[in-house]
Structure formats: structure tokens, C-alpha cells
Amino acid sequence: ASGRAKGFAFSRYKNVAAYVALVAEVEVDLAPRLTRVWCAVDAGQLINPDGARNQVEGGIIQGASWALKEQVRFAEGAIASDGWETYPILRFSEVPEIETWFVGDPHAPALGIGEVTQGPIGAAICNAVARALGARIRDLPLTGERIAAALLAQG
Predict the structure, then answer these.
(1) What is the pLDDT of residues 116-130, one digit of tens each?
(2) Would you list the DSSP string of the chain?
(3) pLDDT level of residue 1 (50, 70, 90 thresholds)
(4) Which option is the CATH number for 3-154: 3.90.550.10, 3.30.420.40, 3.30.365.10, 3.10.129.10?
(5) Would you say the pTM of this structure is higher than 0.85?
């Protein structure tokens, strides 16, 4: 199965800080590829807009890497992922186009922005993959093997 789809996620960071809404667009063939992300953040008054953008977009990239690639492997009860040379992470060539908007009120108190996008980007990617395939994968990372297993289980 293959396809292109979008998925949505919304979150409030640590239930007391910034709000974020994300849309992730994926292409799915043998494995999913994140092609584009739209992100809207309400962090109240932005103290450092450039720093906030870097934090938000960096979190999208790191969270996407977790959802699509990263996995500690075990063999015989021990960690087999023992070197950065072989540990799978998102490569520069795989970084999606990201559009970010800050929609907060400049007169409102500043809200913590920290790692606001790292969790919900995974949810948005998973929702997009489920929409593209018609099958939901409940374990990360979203590997080709897991996609094949989900499609086989679906029948």
C-alpha cells in the first residue's frame, strides 16, 4: 500500500505552558517519509521569537526522528545499539519543509515553550500514516516491517 496523507495533533505543553497544533504530511510507500509540517503555537508573549522558532522547529525534527527512525535495539538481554555510527536518526536530506506561526497575544504572560512539539509531532505523523494506509500502527518507530505487519493484520 502507498499513499499521501495529512494527520493532525494538538497539545498543551506540560498542561500549564504553550499550546501547539500540528499538521504532518507524509508519503508512505515501503516506509513513511515526512514531507511537510505546519505548526501553530500560542506561547503568549514571545520574549525571544528567533529562539522560540528554533526550539519549536528543532523539536519537530527530533520528534519526527523518534517516530520514524530511532530505536534502541537489544540482543541477548543487552543493548545492541552501541555506536552513533549505526544508530538511525533523521538525516538532513529527510528533514521536512516546516512552516511555523506564533499566534500568541503580545500582552499575555509568556508561556513555557520548551519541548512543546516533540510529543505531538509523533501523533500527527502516526495519524497521517493511519489515514494513508487505512491501518493504525501502535508501536514506534514506524518502520517498513511494522507497516507491512499492520497491513497484513488488516487483511
Answers:
(1) 999 999 999 999 999
(2) --EEEEEEEEEEGGGTS-EEEEEEEEEESSSEEEEEEEEEEE-SS-S-HHHHHHHHHHHHHHHHHHHHT----EETTEE----TTTS----GGGPPEEEEEE---TTSPP---TTTTHHHHHHHHHHHHHHHHSS---SSS--HHHHHHHHHHH-
(3) low
(4) 3.30.365.10
(5) yes
